[in-house]
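User: I'm curious whether this sequence folds into something compact or stays loose and floppy. Could you predict its structure so I can see for myself?
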Amino acid sequence: MKFMTTWSFPTGNIPEAAARFLAGEAAPPEGIKLLGRWHNTDCSGGFVLVETNDPVAMYADSAKWADLLELNTVPVIEDGDAGPVLANRFKK
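Assistant: Here's the prediction. I'll summarize afterward.
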């Protein structure tokens, strides 16, 4: 299953978060496949797309950053999966 996490920096946390990121602490733990990570161009946060079937690994990864970042994680699906549902729901 794919999950999209968005993050933002509470005031003053960018230096500590940057230090952890540059030290390699942003690598996903075992059981989570990183599909991509993007950073907002205004340095306000960003988002990451991962794939996993391990909710405990997701929780552990979030807990690693929860003291520095505001996190929001949701399961996501691709167009190919959403399209048939929408077509069935809104067919005329």
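Summary: The mean pLDDT is 95. Residues 79-90 form the longest helix (12 residues).
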